[in-house]
């Protein structure tokens, strides 16, 4: 069996874990073609990985020098005139508390470039201006990293993929965390409006047995479900379709689907029962209290126009300690997605769903997972291949009903 040497080329699976004031977070990233000659890895990680073989892993706390430091001088008071507000959904964007925006939306600020997509965060607002935090979203965090060796190959002339590892592994993480003391202002300016406000029942009249994720992303999502779900439980697949993405070998007591199309759910082999119900017409769930041990909502939360009421209903129908798991990616049916969803950075969307949990006041132990970097399978049925080289990212947010 091969082992890592000083000039190996490695596929490594990184898990970066950290906590914010309201949730625990894990970022998973598959890094391919990592060159032990050319690439830079976190301090101490490269030396501890040498000698490992496929399947071996190493875990350590990142040295503070490896994490962007927090600099008070990067928190700046801005007059509102400095914000170059674009028009989105026929309205002028405003800087909102807790939200992230690309730095190219602020002008005449030392250290920023007019073409920079690096994020800044609004950490205070008043009638005349706002306070912009230009620090990295992960600044000052305590971070652990676990690296698992997936594959080892002989040396090659390739340049490697992690020459600037932090720019890749820290590109997005941190933006799912709300400010320590203040909820993010996600809910101003008609956040739950949509481009197509027509009756959803008409939109879903015909079956839509389409794959919302590529096959690798579905495999990654199923693996996450396998880690969260247990046997002999009653599951609710919320906004169900033709596939519940349940892992093989899972033996639930029952799986109930609630969705918009009876034919889609009839084709779903995991379901033991199904109910046609439009949550955007009636957000109450048609089930008795404490009916389920787990509720899953797969690539659908972005269509809810009454999320607070749905989360309240989920809490009512879960048993104490039950789990509510919501997953999504970065594509959707554009006419039916809520406005706020399409306005957010991908990682901010995990913060939005986390805030749905907080708003209900019924859930605890909120956690997020992001999964990126996998190669996209060469599937002839995938209209995004070969134009997209990477598999769809997977984002998961879950919490447990407090007992």
From TrEMBL:
The GO molecular function terms of this record are: peptidyl-prolyl cis-trans isomerase activity; S-adenosylmethionine-dependent methyltransferase activity
Xref: Gene3D superfamilies: 3.10.50.40, Vaccinia Virus protein VP39
Any Pfam family the entry gives: Methyltransf_11
Q: Which residues form the Methyltransferase type domain?
A: 275-326
- Biological process annotations from GO: methylation
| Alphabetical keyword list | Methyltransferase, Transferase
| Domain of life according to the entry | Bacteria
SUPFAM superfamilies this protein is in? S-adenosyl-L-methionine-dependent methyltransferases
Question: What's the protein called, per UniProt?
Answer: Methyltransferase type 11
Lineage, top ranks = Bacteria, Pseudomonadati, Thermodesulfobacteriota, Desulfovibrionia, Desulfovibrionales
């Amino acid at each position: 069996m091969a082992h890592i040497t000083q000039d190996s080329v490695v596929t490594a699976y990184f898990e970066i874990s950290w906590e914010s004031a309201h949730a625990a977070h894990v970022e998973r990233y598959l890094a391919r073609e990592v060159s032990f000659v050319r690439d830079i890895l976190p301090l101490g990680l490269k030396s501890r990985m040498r000698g490992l073989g496929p399947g071996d892993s190493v875990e350590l706390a990142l040295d503070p020098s490896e994490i962007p430091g927090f600099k008070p001088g990067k928190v700046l008071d801005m007059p509102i005139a400095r914000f170059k507000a674009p028009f989105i959904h026929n309205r002028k964007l405003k800087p909102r508390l807790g939200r992230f925006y690309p730095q190219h939306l602020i002008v005449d600020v030392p250290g920023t470039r007019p073409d920079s997509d690096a994020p800044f965060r609004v950490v205070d607002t008043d009638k005349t201006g706002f306070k912009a935090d230009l620090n990295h979203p992960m600044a000052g965090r305590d971070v652990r990293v676990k690296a698992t060796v997936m594959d080892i190959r002989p040396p090659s002339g390739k340049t490697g993929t992690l020459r600037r590892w932090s720019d890749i592994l820290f590109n997005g993480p941190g933006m799912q965390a709300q400010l320590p003391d203040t909820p993010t202002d996600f809910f101003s300016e008609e956040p739950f409006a949509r481009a197509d406000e027509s009756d959803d029942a008409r939109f879903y009249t015909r079956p839509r047995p389409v794959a919302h994720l590529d096959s690798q992303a579905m495999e990654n999502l199923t693996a996450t479900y396998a880690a969260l779900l247990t046997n002999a439980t009653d599951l609710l697949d919320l906004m169900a379709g033709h596939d519940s993405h349940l892992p093989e070998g899972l033996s639930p007591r029952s799986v109930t689907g609630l969705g918009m199309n009876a034919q889609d759910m009839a084709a779903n082999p995991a379901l033991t029962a199904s109910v046609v119900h439009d949550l955007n017409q009636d957000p109450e769930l048609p089930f008795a209290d404490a009916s389920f041990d787990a509720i899953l909502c797969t690539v659908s939360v972005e269509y809810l126009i009454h999320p607070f009421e749905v989360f309240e209903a989920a809490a009512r129908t879960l048993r104490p300690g039950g789990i509510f798991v919501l997953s999504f990616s970065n594509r959707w049916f554009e006419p039916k997605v809520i406005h706020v969803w399409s306005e957010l950075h991908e990682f901010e969307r995990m913060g939005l769903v986390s805030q749905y949990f907080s708003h209900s006041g019924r859930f605890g132990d909120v956690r997020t997972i992001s999964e990126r970097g996998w190669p996209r399978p060469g599937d002839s049925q995938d209209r995004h291949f070969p134009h997209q080289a990477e598999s769809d990212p997977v984002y998961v947010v879950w919490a447990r009903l407090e007992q």
